[in-house]
Predict the 3D structure of the following.
Amino acid sequence: MAEYQYILVERDEAIAVVTLNRPKELNALNFTLVSELANAFEDLDRDESVRCIVLTGAGEKAFAAGADIKEMSDKSPIEMMVGGFEAWERIRRIHTPLIAAVGGYAFGGGCELAMHCDMIIASENARFGQPEIKIGVIPGAGGTQRLARTFGKFRTMEMVLTGEPFTAQEMAAHGLVNRIVPKGEHLNEAVKLAKVIAQRPPLAARLGKESVLAAFETSLSEGLEIERKNFFLLFATEDMREGMRAFIEKRNPEFHGR
């Protein structure tokens, strides 16, 4: 397994846990960290034995408190364009289901990183925000777009234009958090959810993820076509035969990703 400077990667059978590991800097996202994260996700995505990935932050205070402002403060537009934002697109293209386990602050790039995941488990003390306007910029890694598609226009405008944080409870009320757990239990709950997903047929999980994401990027008719093709495609898999046989025979299925 590759060695990383700012992240940790651990395996628990079919689950991988990736930890942002800059606790003294509240896991601030510098270019190197985001690049390492993209590399790790791609490595895990290629590993057929990995069926779900959990992403969390080291320490009790933050999932990720935002981008590394010291690193960005003297950058030119071109340096920003070529310096690390390509890694965000690589993260967006990961096929394996991703679960964010969020405790404490998820601000700026941290909030955007959580929204790159497919599900979010949050501690009751979690706080989400896009405070970029307070330092003269706006969200740059999908914050305005992903928030607007789920949070709605008016709440997104409030978050982006004031820069003020929202509680986990407020986010959950608008569908941006799957569930809220007692402080410090976010990772345990995320791993528990990941283990349920890992028991499902991995090809179906990947195509299910692809189909849901298509709803945010296509028209209804185009999304329905993608869903239908993925549905038909799964009839070519051994896992589909096994799943239906197991259902008929009233036993637990054994899925192998084929």
